[in-house]
Amino acid sequence: MSEQLKGEEATSAPDELEQAVVLIRREPGKRELYLEALAAAGGEGADPISRFDLEGRMAAKPQAATMFQSMGTLIDALVREGLLAEQLPEPEYDPDIEEERVDMARATYTLTDKGGKVLERLRPSARLARLFADEPENAEGFRRLLVFCNGTKRTKRQIDDELAAICAAAPRSRHVSAAAIYPSYFTDRLEQCAGLVWEDGWTTTKEGAAFLAVFQ
């Protein structure tokens, strides 16, 4: 193999991985559903999961309630991107249509190596750690909000009151273009990292609570 070809292979893998990360991040409404599918498909040695069960795991996420696309459509996108491996069942004769068809509900899925790398990179714990490291000036606000919403659904007004003093004292941040920082900035950033979720009120996710236990 030529040195040029080796170099091309070395650079193509990170590029492909970055493209997959962009797919997951591109649409925030789908992000946690994609990641749930990857996590449900497991890693090395995990049993394959059926499409029926995989769709059920995804549909149980709060984000699925506002998703117009089917869970199957999202699964297909992960397969096309090479993050999930799909095994189709043998076609069976369907007397209603008088021909063979594949029962997609019985298709099974496993996590690919590429999917595992993307999942590891985008795990909530990793995203939250990067958030706190990248924005040390806002870390206390993030921590306080996770504590405040842990185990209790909070309204926007309650969060506004809880973070009022922190927002008033916050220094001008490179992450915020406006002259002031608002409580909604903290909720938005934590939601992006799967630390908070809206379920008839803002509440700390189990991943956010686990991170909080370590961070504190």
Kindly list the characteristics that best describe this protein.
single chain, 216 residues, mainly alpha, Arc Repressor Mutant, subunit A, 2 domains, three-stranded antiparallel β-sheet, 10% strand
How would you characterize the overall build of this protein?
The protein is mainly alpha-helical. It folds into two domains: 120 residues, Arc Repressor Mutant, subunit A, CATH 1.10.10; 91 residues, Arc Repressor Mutant, subunit A, CATH 1.10.10. 56% of the residues lie in helices and 10% in strands. It has a three-stranded antiparallel β-sheet with strand order 1-5-2. Strands 3-4 form a two-stranded antiparallel sheet. The longest helix is centred in the first third of the chain and has 24 residues. The N terminus is likely disordered.
